[in-house]
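[Automated response] Your request has been received and processed.

Submitted sequence:
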Amino acid sequence: MVFTRWFGVTESDTDRSPAREKADIEEIAKKSLLMQANAAARQHRPLCRGTHAKGVCARAHFEIFEGANNRDPELARRLAQGIFANPGVYPAVVRFANADPNVNSDFKPDVRSLSFAVELRRHGAASPGANTGRQDFSMQNATTLPINDSPAFLATMKLLTASNPALGMWSLPFKDKLRVLRTLTLAELQARQVIKPYQQLRYWSTVPFRHGPVDVVKYSAAPSPDNCSLPPQRSNPKGLQDELIRHLRQDGKMSSFDFGIQFLDVRRMTYWGKHLDADFWIENASIEWNETESPFHTVAKLTLIPNSQLTAEESNAAYFDVTGNSTPDSAPVGSINRARWPAEVASRKARMGAAGSRAS
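Generated structure:
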């Protein structure tokens, strides 16, 4: 599979370098802080999130179904891992956002995101077996990430933070040039989707997570067919945000999303007609797990709460950390998950530190 390797997909562990990844991750964190600062300076504003800069936070309920919706016993047992082994209704905070690090019009082509934090307590009691106070999820309205792994991540960050993009591209090694071209092409394709209200979109985790001691999975949140929305006003640069706020304040029925789990099944999943090992599917974030080969199984429902938009202060304090707020049996896996966590933590500390300085 020389063709796929050449364009940034790694077929086996021999194509990957743990030593390089460690060095890459350190530089990715530095470049992420630079990109965050550049975006703020360019738009003459305080620091926002390093990505997903513009969004709306609200409260929700996350209902985990009893017995995985009464499926066959073996499938129900396999699905009922981690928090999904404890049915009930849990409080959650959600954030719908645009992916761009800049604060743009909602009608600029972009990928949209749904992030949410589930508090692991029911009616004031801790969830049995939980090791942490919450579990976080981060999802986008695309099935994959355009950035395949840490080498592609760093190469793309070098270009995006270069003072001269043409010189920045020219300075990259040839393979990194190809990685960047592949990443930017996939990102552009994903951004060119039909623009819809946040509550009408389907979202995917795009990257994999552990699910109990054996399985690896991805997640999806599919909008209920009867989710309410009005056409957003394209003359309003905050059209998607304002439509979601209107929905929370005015509609009698709140939007909900069916939350599903997709298993990594190497026996059924194929890439270009070939069966590959688990590491291939875990390490390559830009490769889709085909739903016809491994379907999603609905295990929960996320439902918005009316009139629950967070205040500006609460929204600024909110954050989502799928690594820091996970349990060992739900931890993220793969190159991108390893690479993005230090960058996200550094970005959050910079943003919250800047906010604290302004407040004082």
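Summary generated for your ticket: The two ends are 57 Å apart (CA to CA). The CA atoms of residues 68 and 75 lie 8 Å apart.
If you did not submit this request, please reply to this message.
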